[in-house]
């Protein structure tokens, strides 16, 4: 069984920065993709940023402000968030496509970490 552990959420003032981290553990043969989604109160979950061996992908709302990085050997990913504003307030979820057996992949989600941008 694969688990994702997120850390780094909290409260920050508008214009501030936060760094989220996610570590995958368990039976992992390889990871094809890691990334971050978020869900604001009353809204649908949306993609924030993902990273594969081909590079990162960002949503239009965060491109230029957020940076995703991945450490493949350690099965971790981080999301550096700069110039935060109130619209970034949400629960942020780490996600990964993980190979758990030969020819078997699993889409895994973390429990989420709250990010609140408020003055």
How do you describe this structure in short?
With 119 residues, the protein is mainly β. 0% of the residues lie in helices and 61% in strands. It has strands at 3-7, 10-12, 18-25, 30-39, 46-52, 55-58, 66-71, 76-81, 90-101, 104-109, 113-117.
Main traits of this protein?
119 residues, mainly beta, seven-stranded mixed beta sheet, elongated
Describe this structure in words.
It is a single chain. The chain is mainly beta. The protein is built from no helices and eleven strands. The strands form two sheets. Strands 2, 4, 5, 6, 9, 10 and 11 form a seven-stranded mixed sheet that branches. A hairpin with a 2-residue loop joins strand 9 (90-101) and strand 10. The chain is elongated and about 50 Å long. The N and C termini lie far apart (40 Å). The model has no long low-confidence stretch (mean pLDDT 96).
Secondary structure elements and their pairing?
Blueprint: E1 3-7, E2 10-12, E3 18-25, E4 30-39, E5 46-52, E6 55-58, E7 66-71, E8 76-81, E9 90-101, E10 104-109, E11 113-117
| Mean pLDDT score | 96
| Rounded radius of gyration (Å) | 14 Å
The profile of the biggest β sheet is: 7 strands, mixed
What fraction strand? over 45%
Shape: elongated
Going by helix content, strand content and strand pairing, the class is: mainly beta
Can you count the helices?
0
- The ordered string of helix (H) and strand (E) elements is EEEEEEEEEEE
Number of strands: 11
Q: Give the termini separation.
A: 40 Å
Helix content: under 10%
Uncertain residue segments: none
């Amino acid at each position: 069984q694969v688990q994702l552990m997120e850390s780094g959420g909290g409260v920050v003032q508008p214009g501030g920065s936060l760094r989220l981290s996610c570590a995958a553990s368990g039976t992992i043969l390889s990871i094809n993709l890691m990334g971050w989604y978020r869900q604001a109160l009353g809204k649908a979950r949306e993609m924030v940023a993902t990273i594969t061996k081909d590079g990162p992908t960002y949503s239009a709302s965060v491109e230029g402000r957020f940076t995703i990085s991945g450490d493949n050997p350690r099965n971790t990913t981080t999301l550096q968030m700069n110039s935060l504003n109130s619209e970034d307030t949400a629960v942020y979820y780490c996600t990964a496509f993980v190979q758990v057996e030969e020819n078997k992949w699993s889409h895994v989600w973390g429990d989420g970490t709250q990010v609140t941008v408020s003055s």
